[in-house]
Each structure stands twice: as C-alpha cells, then as structure tokens.
Amino acid sequence: MTDPDAVSRFDADAAARGLDVQVVERPAADSLEGAAAMLGIDPGDIVKTLVVKRHDGGFLLALVPGGRSIAWKKLRTVVGVNKLSMPDAATALEASGYERGTITPIGATGDLPVYADERVLGRRIALGAGRQGASAFVDGDALVAAYGATIADITDEEPARP
Fold first, then answer.
1. Per residue in 51-70, pLDDT tens?
2. CA-CA distance, 61 to 47, in Å (whole number)?
3. End-to-end CA, the chain
4. What is the number of alpha carbons within 13 Å of residue 93 lying toward its C-beta?
5. Rounded to 10 degrees, what is the CA torsion of 21, 22, 27, 29?
6. Looking at residue 27, what DSSP letter applies?
7. Which DSSP string do the residues of 90-142 spell out, in sequence order?
8. Which residue has better confidence, 31 or 60?
C-alpha cells in the first residue's frame, strides 16, 4: 500500500531541489534484467538506494547501480569509518521514511548523507520512487548534485548467477 505522506514528501523534495523527475508506474519484476526490460533501459541504469548503518548509530544512503553490490572496504574508506552494516527492514524504514524496494534519496527523512557509486554519473537512471509499483527516472548528475553526494568507486560487479 502506498503511503500518501511518502508520495507527498517525494514530490515536494524533488520540486524544492529543482529535480526533473519522471515517475513511471510499473508491475513488479522478478529480476534486475526483467525490470530493465520492462523499463526499456540497461540493467546498470537501475540504481538501488540502500540504507547503511554507521558504527556510531547514524545512517547514510548508498546509490548502487544494477548488477553491482556495495564493496564494503571501499565504502568504509570513503566514509572514514571501520564498521558499516545493513540494517533490518524496519530500521531502514525508520531511518529513511521508505520501505525497502522504494527507498530513494528524494524525500528521504533524516537528512542522510548520500554516497553514489561513480557509475551513476553521465546517465539517466531509474531508482525507487518512494512507493510500491513505481520507478523514478532522473539524470544521475542532477541527482548527485542536488544532494551534494560523495562520488566514489564504492561497488564491485556482482558475480554472474548460474
């Protein structure tokens, strides 16, 4: 079920930051490749927004292109900490204001710092739209600029699945 407050928060934040965002309704997909085909884009243009917990109890958002996963050593180095972890779904919701699968920096609560993999730049990307059954298309460069994101190589290619 879509939270009307999440939709309003998303729309208001995009407008306040001057982001040109196109939200597209879509059915659920069973894989990254299926989602990309449905949206008419390459799998690497789908960007996951992951809530990451810092050792001090704070949180950050990591933007991870499709087909890639967080490289924990790289991310810890960029953040300047020795320990980071993935919180459970309830904690991610509390930290960001969005359910897993819908998380996006756009309208996220808590003014969380954003760390974007360098592969987000120079392309139009699709990411969570703060609601189930929708994707948000936005220019990657505009998104990272709007949030003052730290850009770095923070991911590794996911191994091929048999």
1. 999 999 999 999 999 999 99
2. 12
3. 34
4. 9
5. -60
6. -
7. HHHHHHHSS-TTT--STT-TT---EEEEGGGTTSEEEEE-SSTTEEEEEEHHH
8. 60
| The amino acid at 84 | L
| Distance (Å, whole) CA 128 – CA 141 | 17
**How far from chain centre, in Å, is Cα 144?**
11
- CA–CA distance, 64 with 49 (Å, rounded to integer): 6
Number of residues that make up the chain:
162
The tens digit of pLDDT for each residue in 125-157 reads: 999 999 999 999 999 999 999 999 999 999 999
Residues forming beta bridges with residue 51, ordered by sequence position: 61
What's the gap between Cα 52 and its chain centre? 11
Q: What is the largest CA-CA distance in the chain?
A: 44
